[in-house]
Amino acid sequence: MTIDKSSAAALSRSHMPANFDISLDSYLGRSDFGRGYVENETRIPEDFGTTQSMQGFEKTYKNIIDYIVRITFRIWETRDVDYIADTYTGASVVYDDYGLQLGNEKIIADTRHTTRAFSNIELVADEVIWAGDDEIGYHTSHRTIIRGTNDGDSKYGPATGKTVEVLVIANCVALGNEIFLEHVLYNNSSLIQQLGLDINQLARSMSEGDSVAGWPRDSATWQALRVAAKPDVALSVAEPIEGFDPDAFARAHLNQVWNRGDLACLPNYYTADFAFTGPTDRQSLGIDAYAEFVLSIRECFADLQVQMDEVYWMGNLATGFLISERWSATATHTQDGLFGDPSGIKVQIWGITQQHIIDGKVMREWLLFNELDVMMQIARGHQDKS
After folding, report:
1. By the 8 A CB rule, do 54 and 134 touch?
2. Fold match between 13-224 and 234-385?
3. CA-CA 20 to 30 A from 170: which of 24, 45, 88, 177?
4. What would the pLDDT profile of 312-360 be if each residue is shown by its tens digit?
């Protein structure tokens, strides 16, 4: 089989798993699906789960969940960092919080840096939403909890001795045992706060010069980030179905809540007591708290219009759905608020949202966007004006 790893093909409905037979919950023997990590659970099971077609992958991997969980554990926790060269292509394209990182050598160097800064680091699998196959590529949205003690110097400064717990969501596309495309968001703003550092001061200092690899993004990189794996036509239009449609749900929610600011519609999408986890240590229960979060972002950017870049899911009406949504926006920083005095600059915002849906409503949501990067863009805007 000839594998094209120059770009990722968009998914169709047939690529969405209709059940949770191959899922992280099944793999780890959890009693319920979609709720995430259970403290002290077995991290790597003795039985690697249901076998699925993995043509081109190492024979040790039984399914895509097994692949994602065990390569992460092997690279980070057994410190086999060089294994990255076997699981990322030499020309891999990685869009992170700051910009574009090219090639597996850069990933290896960054991983070595992080393991030196957090010598006891753990990457705990919280959730993996997947779709696709071994011909078009396996798309995975891997939600991870990073734990460790900052006992070495990091890119944020000298060791602080602080213990951190930080959420990460990495959306990857893998073929033939190699990841060739990744969109990854580290909750860096949360990490900085947990390290006891001044986030505003760091954002200012990091925005000066070219000290951060891949930052700032040029317009070509920004456009490539947004269109990677994006379908030409939304599945809800290209392949319409009757009844609950995860694609239509995700797109309608994004448009009505984030673009139109219609917060009165939130009960149509969320259960009354749904749990929300967001960037910079945001945790809340219920619709009112979520409405405040949405308002706090929209108030800063009067022309905010978010586009959906990719949606995929697993599940069915009877047991519920897990949905991964990747989205982006270019918006003008026109108002004061979360990000200080208005700078008047156009800001690049992109994020990944995971939702656990039961009976057509969200009962849990995890959302990350490039918040530290947004702060850096605004800081650079103020510097350029001064």
Report:
1. yes
2. yes
3. 45
4. 999 999 999 999 999 999 999 999 999 999 999 999 999 999 999 999 9
Considering the segment(s) 234-385 as one domain, its CATH architecture is: Roll (3.10)
Contact 21, 50 (CB under 8 A): yes
CATH of domain 13-224: 3.10.450.50
Q: Give residue limits of the domains in the chain.
A: 13-224, 234-385
